[in-house]
Amino acid sequence: MQGRPLPSRTASFRAESLGQRALHLVGNLGFALFVLGVLAFTIIAATYHPDDPLLHPSSKLTSFLTATSSATFRSDESVLRTGEDFLNASAASDDDPSPAIRLSDVSPTAAGDCDDKGGPIDCKDPEVYHVMMQASIETYRNNHFYRFGKPAPGAGDGRTCDMAWRFRPKDAKRAAFYKDYRRFDLARGPNCTYSVVKIGDYHTGVNARKKKNKLKGGPSSDTLSSSSADGLDPRNGEKPFVVPVVGEAVNDTLPVVESEGKFSAGKYLIYTGGGDRCKPMNHYLWSFLCALGEAQYLNRTLIMDLSICLNSMYTSTNQDEEGKDFRFYFDFEHLRDSASVLDERQFWKDWALWQKKDRLGLHLVENFKVTPMKLAEVKDALIMRKFGAVEPDNYWYRVCEGETESVIQRPWHLIWKSRRLMDIVSGIASRMNWDFDSVHVVRGEKARNTELWPNLARDTSPEALLSTLGEKIDDRRHLYIATNEPDTSFFDPLKDKYIVHFFDDFKDLWDENSEWYTETQRLNIGIPVEFDGYMRVEVDTEVFLRGKKQIETFNDLTSDCKDGINACRTDS
Ligand SMILES: *[C@@H]1O[C@H](CO)[C@@H](O)[C@H](O)[C@H]1NC(C)=O
Ligand SMILES: *[C@@H]1O[C@H](CO)[C@@H](O)[C@H](O)[C@H]1NC(C)=O
Ligand SMILES: *[C@@H]1O[C@H](CO)[C@@H](O)[C@H](O)[C@H]1NC(C)=O
Ligand SMILES: *[C@@H]1O[C@H](CO)[C@@H](O)[C@H](O)[C@H]1NC(C)=O
């Protein structure tokens, strides 16, 4: 590669300015929009509704969150928007003329002499590298490539090499990068020109997937992150703003306190008890982020319980399920690296060891009406907020109500979706070449209830779909159908016109042989993790949102209202 550096500096630089622009934008969006966005958005209701309780002060929000009958909380299609969804990628779109690596950057040089015509192909040969980069850019025309890692030997057969790259889909609406690594079958011509015979599937180039270096802040061994000016790696320096890199190896081990000195000099905040447990995920986050916001306001480390109880609306047993891990759903690495948090089990262990000896004080607060501002002067090592048994006064988020509301901002930017789940999304989109349209078809209970949804069943029938979609989506396109219709053969008539895909077609991305399965099992002390309803809705929705054209049930397919007859919002 001498003399032909890849434009990785450009890529890093761009990513940084993207971050800054996004930061600026997020600042401008303000709190209200965050609330609007983050809570329980359904993919079909992503429009602004002035009467949305989420836009109102917290008294209304409280009754909203506690009204279990609220239709908006019916689970089947609701999924959370999280911090990375507000990193606006349009800031990073094609107004910059040369963001991605172009074909002309990687054209192979003319073949020179070659002495070793018969031997194994040397993956380190710059010529091979160039041919592989060229083939990737030519093959995946819907991607913009930002960095290629050096190839590594593939299957060890002398004709395959593995290579990683960082990319973004061409028309990405979100500010995220994706990493892929694939296996290339190569051939060598008589005059030593190389050619790519075949590029393997998503994530097949496992030898190019290096784990991150253990040295915190040190140079990473990742083939893609070797540049010390890497603006995308949260571990590099004190970058105020980062974007997710989906597909990058995740290291979400729990933080530890290195020494007694460090522990005893720390200041901590913990919330215990309360009625938030087993509530829907949006309630959980609303409360958790209040605690995190208070901890940040007080300059204290938040002691958190990483064990989550999953609400029955997402479980296959229809019972609330304890023992889920925060890391199944959210990006703990991002949280850990950008905020000060500790797992409570670790914390109590250390506390028991050193509390007496170092005379660490505990300040107990049992009334949520004691504001964070009143706690600013507390000198004790630990502030413990204890919540009682009576709902809704025992919800954590009540701490952030009233006058506190204007003081404490929930740090949404610290919460990203699990990158392991997003990697599944990337895998599904990659199998459709990032070039697909999507349709969300709500049927199920609603289609059966003709009183509230008189036309839904008919409007989502295969015949109606064929005619509605026919006007909007070209023949032979890849069509991703996100649906709650259990019997997907129902949509068979669409197969004559489109290349149809369903969520379950991609099961291998989370089944026993998948990376997701192995990694979550490891997190879960060896016990296999069920791919639950929340994960399912999250992945399904995120894939839907990556379609080039997105057709939604309500408005696009039917004039029935999402919440039943006469419940249509008049604004939009
Ligand atoms: C992102 O930017 C585009 C154009 O600047 C704008 O239309 C869109 O609403 C923005 N999205 C968000 C989530 O702010
Ligand atoms: C090498 O051989 C291939 C066909 O095997 C031919 O297309 C190509 O032009 C040759 N390249 C050079 C530099 O001779
Ligand atoms: C994961 O990250 C933690 C904290 O940054 C670090 O101490 C640990 O060595 C890392 N583990 C690996 C395998 O990189
Ligand atoms: C937290 O730290 C910041 C910066 O050091 C300081 O300005 C602020 O007053 C501190 N807040 C409290 C509650 O101690």
TrEMBL record:
Sequence ranges assigned to domain DUF7074 in this UniProt record: 120-204
Protein name: Uncharacterized protein LOC103705500
Region feature (Disordered): 210-236
Biased composition (Low complexity): 217-231
Keyword Cell wall biogenesis/degradation: no
Domain named DUF7075: residues: 262-553
GO cellular component: Golgi apparatus
Domain of life: Eukaryota
Membrane listed as a keyword: yes
Pfam families documented for this protein: DUF7074, DUF7075
UniProtKB keywords: Membrane, Transmembrane, Transmembrane helix
TM spans (from-to): 21-48
